Amino acid sequence: MERIAIYPGSFDPITNGHLDIIVRASKLFDKLIVGVLNNPNKKSLFNFEERFELLKQTTSNLENVKVDTFSGLLIDYCRENNISAIIRGLRAVSDFEYELQMSQMNHQLNSDVETIFLTTNTKYSFLSSSLVKEVAKFNGDISYLVPDVVLKKLNDKYGKGE
Fold first, then answer.
1. Which residue of 22, 70, 145, 149 shows the fewest CB atoms closer than 10 Å?
2. Can you tell me which residues bind substrate (predicted)?
3. Beta strands in the chain (DSSP E)
């Protein structure tokens, strides 16, 4: 039986921290789905289609990684797609508290799906999409924090095209 996991998120935008988790998780499963959450109630810098495309571009070299979209309950998507594990990245203790609560709720909804926590690479432990957007907005150097294609898109969004 194929072992399938999902790494869900809004990825607004994808960072090198996200990519690190994706690469590491892809080595643990036969197939890893990177699930872009479509949450119309959340204000994003990049629209849903842009986030999807950026993820496809930045993961295209990983053969067993597929980018997909979902809305609604993640656990329902897992059930519909025979997913047995949810991958979550942890940067700090504060992440763990929230992620533990989510994982316990998901387990209540479907005990066949496990949550696997991967701790972040220490060089990305401070990194978040929100922080990247904030620094980019004020012309800070984020070139080492995001893939090149994301850097270009951020520069375009903030009117700093090359």
1. 149
2. 10, 42, 74, 88
3. 4-9, 31-37, 65-70, 85-90, 114-119
Active-site entry in 56, 66, 79, 91: 91
What is the rounded end-to-end Cα distance, in angstroms, of the chain?
Answer: 48
CA dihedral 76, 107, 89, 49 (to 10 degrees): 10
Cβ pair 106, 86 in contact under 8 A: yes
Residue 91 annotated to the active site = yes
Among the options 26, 129, 133, 153, which is catalytic? 129
Cα–Cα distance for residue pair 122/155, rounded to 1 Å = 26
Give me the pLDDT at residue 161, please: 60
- Is CATH 3.40.50.620 the classification given to domain 4-158? yes
- Provide the residue type at 5 as one letter: A
Tens digits of residue pLDDT in 31-45? 999 999 988 778 899
pLDDT digits (tens, 9 = 90+) for 40-96: 778 899 999 999 999 999 999 999 999 999 999 999 999 999 999 999 999 888 889
Written as six digits, the tokens of 103 are: 């994982």
Domain residue extents for the chain: 4-158
The verdict on whether 123 is a catalytic residue reads no
